[in-house]
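stage 2 :: seqdesign
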């Protein structure tokens, strides 16, 4: 772990797990690289360590950022408007999520929502919608027509439907599936004989970037997302998104030439094959448009807002 420079106070991101592919985990890793924050994963702590952490949150001088609902519960031990809660999605129970957002908007310095679709009521000025951003170093080399999905392997992510689509249309490139979850073993067994699907299991952030950089498309059939960091990282690297047109992802369809996966699947295949047949320069133009929109809409605002909230400049600016 690395601490904030030129300050006795530390800034800790607190979240439940330490897995490499989750949205909150990716978000926290981007904050660590950008501002030098430290990370605490609750699932790795003993009861004694959790009690010690709770005491420090209540009475210590350090600042804490709680990510998602389980970690946010610790924020109730310090109702002094000092710490920050970040809500990354609706969670398993949208009602519980909304109750916690409502209550914490009165006791935290800020409650940050990564998408306005999570909670529509504007309670006070401490409730802030700050759309996600993350970068993983992905840079498509566009030498294959392969696609990648990286994220949680679960029923809620529409993984079965995505895999079945890919199996039924072998004219498409390989689909690289990266991540862990309760469906992984079942899916690996079910699709073990499919030459155009490759399973990797859990991989580190840097390993995902290497695999994704060899792909042309990012694909996800998930119908319920906050604002997917996997999607943003893929688009920041120039991958062409094949995702559902849901409210949190509607900005994707503001880009000319993006295939729609909400209609007829035969038409979707035709749209993908049309992109594959583009000249290299035409496809590069599309990929550059994707990157420009992501960076203009998400990256600059995200970095500037967090720099103000943390009262610290990004590490790369400090070194100049």
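stage 2 :: out
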């Amino acid at each position: 772990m690395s601490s904030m420079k030129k300050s006795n106070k530390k800034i800790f991101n607190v979240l439940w797990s330490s897995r490499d592919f989750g949205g909150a985990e990716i978000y926290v890793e981007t904050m660590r690289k950008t501002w030098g924050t430290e990370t605490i994963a609750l699932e790795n702590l003993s009861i004694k360590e959790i009690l010690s952490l709770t005491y420090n949150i209540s009475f210590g001088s350090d600042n804490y950022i709680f990510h998602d609902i389980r970690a946010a519960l610790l924020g109730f031990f310090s109702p002094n408007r000092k710490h920050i809660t970040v809500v990354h999605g609706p969670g398993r129970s949208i009602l519980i999520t909304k109750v916690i957002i409502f209550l914490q908007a009165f006791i935290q310095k800020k409650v940050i929502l990564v998408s306005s679709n999570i909670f529509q009521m504007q309670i006070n000025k401490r409730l802030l919608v700050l759309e996600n951003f993350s970068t993983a170093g992905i840079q498509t080399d566009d030498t294959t027509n392969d696609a990648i999905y990286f994220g949680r392997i679960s029923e809620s992510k529409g993984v079965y439907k995505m895999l079945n689509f890919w199996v039924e249309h072998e004219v498409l490139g390989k689909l690289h599936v990266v991540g862990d979850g309760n469906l992984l073993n079942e899916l690996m067994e079910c699709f073990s004989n499919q030459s155009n699907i490759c399973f990797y299991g859990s991989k580190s952030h840097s390993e995902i970037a290497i695999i994704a950089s060899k792909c042309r498309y990012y694909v996800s059939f998930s119908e319920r997302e906050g604002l997917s960091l996997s999607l943003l990282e893929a688009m920041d690297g120039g991958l062409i998104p094949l995702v559902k047109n849901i409210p949190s992802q509607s900005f994707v369809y503001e880009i000319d030439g993006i295939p729609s996966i909400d209609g007829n699947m035969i038409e979707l295949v035709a749209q993908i094959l049309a992109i594959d047949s583009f000249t290299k320069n035409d496809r590069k133009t599309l990929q550059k448009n994707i990157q420009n929109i992501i960076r203009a809409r998400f990256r600059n605002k995200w970095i500037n807002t967090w720099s103000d909230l943390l009262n610290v400049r990004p590490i790369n600016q400090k070194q100049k």
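stage 3 :: structure notes
- The longest strand covers residues 11-15.
- Residues 280-310 form the longest helix (31 residues).
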